[in-house]
Amino acid sequence: MARTQGSRADITGPLIRDHARRLFARQGYAAVSMRQIASAVGVQAGALYAYTPDKQALLFDLMESHMRDLLAAWQDEPAADPLQRLENFVRFHIGFSLDHSDAVFLSYMELRNLTPDNHARIADLRGRYETALENILRDGIESGMMFVDDPKLATMALIAMLTGVTNWYREGGRLDRQRIGDIYWGLARGAVGAA
Amino acid sequence: MARTQGSRADITGPLIRDHARRLFARQGYAAVSMRQIASAVGVQAGALYAYTPDKQALLFDLMESHMRDLLAAWQDEPAADPLQRLENFVRFHIGFSLDHSDAVFLSYMELRNLTPDNHARIADLRGRYETALENILRDGIESGMMFVDDPKLATMALIAMLTGVTNWYREGGRLDRQRIGDIYWGLARGAVGAA
DNA sequence: GTCTATAGCGTGATAGAC
DNA sequence: GTCTATCACGCTATAGAC
């Protein structure tokens, strides 16, 4: 089958996702036009519709694949020491959030721009991730290594604290990632009463 | 001076601000039209421009007045015990955030939709508030009551943790505000090494 | 202060050529 | 798969009547 003029299907798809993610994160879904995305990619707006049925599906795909990537990347070791598992989680969450800061930002800022059905699916994935942390806290409490009044609230509090790194982190700043992980692990360990 | 037909200047201004705040917080600044705000208030879109020069100024006014209200509401007692001051801050921040959740959400979600000049002014106000907490932590460290590696990061971490309450809190939920304050104070106290 | 009407422009999405 | 052209609509903001 002969290639049609100017076709670059193998790279255009990923480029659309990359630029859309970046633009949505920086300006907000509603503020970004399909023309703007197309311009960043280097195609005309009409060409985008060969890859996505509409703008909403593009947003949902970005958020869903991010949540699936996050869940797939987190590898718990349920048999290990709960404190060690918590330290792993803290360092993992910070590292993943900084490596995918646009997707992280998108996935908790643009929930409101999803259709109700799409919203429910993302919320479900998010809930699974929160449960992963909550289970660590419950195991830590049960084993007497952690002291937390309310594991559910502690889960939300810790995730909010850790994700907050993306709000101020700048590449090449005062602290490197290892050091940031150390500091946040110290805060988290204290918060769960295991200082 | 005779009143013109249908004029309700005394209440329209606040109503515009109230509805704009609510709509911006729920749907995002870019996704809300001036017509939508006007409709919620009960006037035609053109009438809004008697109260604001444009949409951007309306957003900025909402954010700036929120930050000023926040700074005015926080009353530190520099002479008191640093731990007591931290507890006060924790309970204050959660209470204020829940009482003004739309404004809180707006003020950290829509920074990207401000002009650079307006952005700098909001960032300055936010910085002052962060400094208020940072000073408590520094005093706590100096007095040997707190153990924190990096007061700057601990400040960002604590504020992110506390503000996160607005993400999941629902009126009439499992926990009342007092109890939520107790739990978060426990987490914060532990995080700063004062459990 | 509020209304109606509208200018001027940008939007998401589609049709049809290549 | 990409382009050009376009439809139909919504947007911010303004003008002028009352």
From TrEMBL, chains A, B:
| Source organism of the structure | Paracoccus saliphilus
GO molecular function annotation: DNA-binding transcription factor activity; transcription cis-regulatory region binding
Q: Which positions fall inside the HTH tetR-type domain? A: 10-70
Annotated DNA-binding ranges?
Answer: 33-52
Q: Tell me the lineage of the source organism.
A: Bacteria, Pseudomonadati, Pseudomonadota, Alphaproteobacteria, Rhodobacterales
Task: Kindly provide the name given to this protein in its UniProt entry.
Answer: TetR family transcriptional regulator
A Pfam family annotated for this chain is TetR_N
- Which UniProt keyword terms apply here? DNA-binding, Transcription, Transcription regulation
* Coiled-coil annotated residue ranges, if any: none
